[in-house]
Amino acid sequence: MEWKIEHIDETDSTNRWLREHQKGTKVPDPFAPDPFAPLVAWADYQTAGKGCGTNAWESERGKNLTFSVLLHPTEISANCQFRISEAVSVALCETIERFGVPRTSIKWPNDIYVGDRKICGILIENLLWGRIIDKSIVGIGLNVNQKAFLSNAPNPVSIIQLTGKETDREMLLQAFLKALSETLDMEPEALGEAYRRRLYRQDGFYAFMDSHGRFMAKVLNVLDDGRLVLLDAEGTARMYAFKEVQFCLKETNSHN
After folding, report:
1. 166-201 b/e (C-beta count within 10 Å ≥ 16 → b)
2. Average per-residue pLDDT for the chain
3. Cβ-contact 104, 221 below 8 angstroms
């Protein structure tokens, strides 16, 4: 897959930048040669970088990888759009580990963790056209060379904090794009298995919070449509869509 990369000094949001600079608005012809090449917007600094919901993303200027990827995954049907989240998450884990970080995990649906600390956040915006995905904009904030975090985020960590070494951000970006090309080409079953193998909190029972209150459970599975399945302490499986359950990150686990 050939990537067109735009390196920007500063923008409020690389996701917004891509929305404004993408070519065309119609669904590309899947039979045309390279109807819309995937586009990457990489910024040294984002003034309004976002996580999910109202969360902000702290990033020191020129130290991290803050970028967005525009895809036209028309071969993926709308009801299988979670495959994009799987492909991006697995590709990030593989890339980060190649640069010397110990084993990573995926906190459902797509935060990347090392132990109990967050190294990368992902925000995916899919635009559907009937039964297919017209456009997918994937915003990524990866902590690379930032040595200290000053916000009230509870658990950030960076590659330099874990390895003690500076990382070339452009090399890291190129390695990720290569890995993403590979994961997007994986068979759905193999990709789903690779994603599930890396799920955070499969090793015991931890505290979670849903609309009924706090409870103890372990991560059991993630379904093909992206719903999370937890096994609670009473042996009952509970199923959740995105934002219907929260991880209580400061709780210790119980290996039952």
Report:
1. ebebeebbebbbebbeebbebeeeebbebbbebbbb
2. 88
3. no
Residue 244 CA to residue 209 CA, distance in Å, equals 9
Q: Please, what is the angle between helix 188-197 and helix 82-98, to 10°?
A: 60
- pTM of this structure: 0.89
pLDDT digits (tens, 9 = 90+) for 44-84: 998 875 544 444 556 788 899 999 999 988 888 999 999 99
Q: Give CA–CA dist 40/50, Å, rounded.
A: 17
Contact 142, 175 (CB under 8 A): no
Per-residue burial over 113-130, b if 16 or more Cβ lie within 10 Å, else e, is: bbebebbbbbbbebeeee
Rounded CA separation 192/99 (Å) = 24
**Taking the CB of residue 250, how many other CB atoms lie within 10 A of it?**
9
Query: Helix %, strand %, coil % for the chain, to 5?
Result: 25, 35, 45
